[in-house]
């Protein structure tokens, strides 16, 4: 799967982040707990070097808890404070104010300004809303919701800048692209849904063989993932005239179920030990 997707608005967003750096005391780098390595933008990480940073592992409710713990330990060992969050329910948010104050110059008395950065759809705006206790920033279950920049007062003395999700211009590693696609960081139009679904089926059956059998009530898994995708399409009634399975729709349905956590909690990036 080849992806060349670096639209103009992303180059603009990168510029916005660079220009806003001097206005903020601390950076919140949001990573997707399902793909802590693949969701780290190497381009932006380099840009942020030298700024106090808090790493947020978000969407922990969708990730394998044991892996999330390992990743948190590893990132802490690399020298950044880490907070594990589920922005949906608010789990983990109690740890934020202290992490912010510690990272952004202990002892500071004035307003602390922070910038929230991360790949598209990782939950930046949801995170800010949850902290603010109100829906101040627009959110949505697709990448590319936030466009401009927006300052939001999340607590007395803490203001956060919401920024648009940013990717990097080239994915040299095909697996990284597939993982970003599977978790929903790439626009549906930019990806080959069928290729992503087939890759995901291969991955799940290798790592958690029982999951697909249970979810789709199959006595045995078909020999290859093409057949498996067809079977899933049949089970979901996604057939076209003549009784053939609509493979595209089957792929979209599978990806949706995966992203909503209906297949279970998975971490696609295994923490190196
Ligand atoms: N399950 C789960 N879903 C989350 C979590 N945080 C955010 N979401 C969902 O992820 C989707 C994207 O959230 P946004 O806050 O719009 O993401 P964003 O990073 O601001 O996205 P862009 O503005 O497009 O870059 C929404 O459907 C959120 O409800 C979380 O911790 N767990
Ligand atoms: Mg947003």
UniProtKB/TrEMBL annotation:
The record's annotation in PROSITE patterns points to: G_CP
Q: Per the record, GO CC terms?
A: cytoplasm
The subcellular localization recorded is: Cytoplasm
Q: Where is the CP-type G domain?
A: 13-169
Q: What CDD domains does the record tag this protein with?
A: YlqF (cd01856)
List the InterPro entries hit by this protein, alphabetically. G_CP_dom, GTP-bd, GTP-bd_ortho_bundle_sf, GTP-bd_ribosome_bgen, GTPase_MTG1, P-loop_NTPase
- Identify the domain of life: Bacteria
Keywords attached to this Swiss-Prot or TrEMBL record, sorted alphabetically, are:
Cytoplasm, GTP-binding, Nucleotide-binding
Protein's name in the database:
Ribosome biogenesis GTPase A
Specify the species: Thermodesulfitimonas autotrophica
**Highest classification ranks of the organism:** Bacteria, Bacillati, Bacillota, Clostridia, Thermoanaerobacterales
């Amino acid at each position: 799967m080849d992806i060349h997707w670096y639209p103009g608005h992303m180059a603009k967003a990168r510029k916005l982040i660079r220009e806003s750096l001097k206005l903020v005391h601390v950076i919140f780098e949001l990573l997707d707990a399902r793909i802590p390595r693949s969701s780290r933008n190497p381009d932006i990480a380099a840009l942020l070097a030298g700024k106090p940073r808090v790493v947020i592992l978000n969407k922990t409710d969708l990730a394998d808890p044991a892996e999330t713990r390992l990743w948190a330990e590893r990132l802490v060992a690399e020298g950044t404070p880490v907070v594990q969050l589920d922005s949906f329910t608010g789990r983990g948010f109690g740890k934020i104010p202290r992490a912010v104050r510690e990272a952004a110059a202990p002892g500071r008395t004035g307003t602390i300004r922070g910038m929230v950065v991360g790949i598209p759809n990782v939950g930046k705006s949801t995170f800010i809303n949850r902290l603010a206790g109100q829906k101040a920033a627009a959110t949505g279950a697709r990448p590319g919701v936030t466009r401009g920049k927006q300052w939001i007062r999340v607590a007395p003395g803490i203001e956060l800048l919401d920024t648009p999700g940013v990717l990097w211009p080239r994915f040299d590693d095909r697996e990284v692209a597939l993982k970003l696609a599977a978790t929903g960081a790439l626009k549906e139009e930019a990806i080959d849904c069928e290729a992503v679904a087939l890759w995901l089926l291969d991955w799940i059956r290798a790592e958690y063989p029982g999951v697909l059998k249970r979810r789709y009530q199959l006595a045995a898994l078909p020999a290859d993932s093409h057949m498996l995708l067809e079977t899933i399409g049949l089970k979901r009634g996604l057939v076209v005239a003549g009784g053939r399975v609509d493979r595209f729709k089957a792929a979209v349905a599978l990806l949706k179920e995966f992203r909503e956590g209906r297949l279970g909690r998975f971490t696609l990036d295994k923490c190196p030990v």
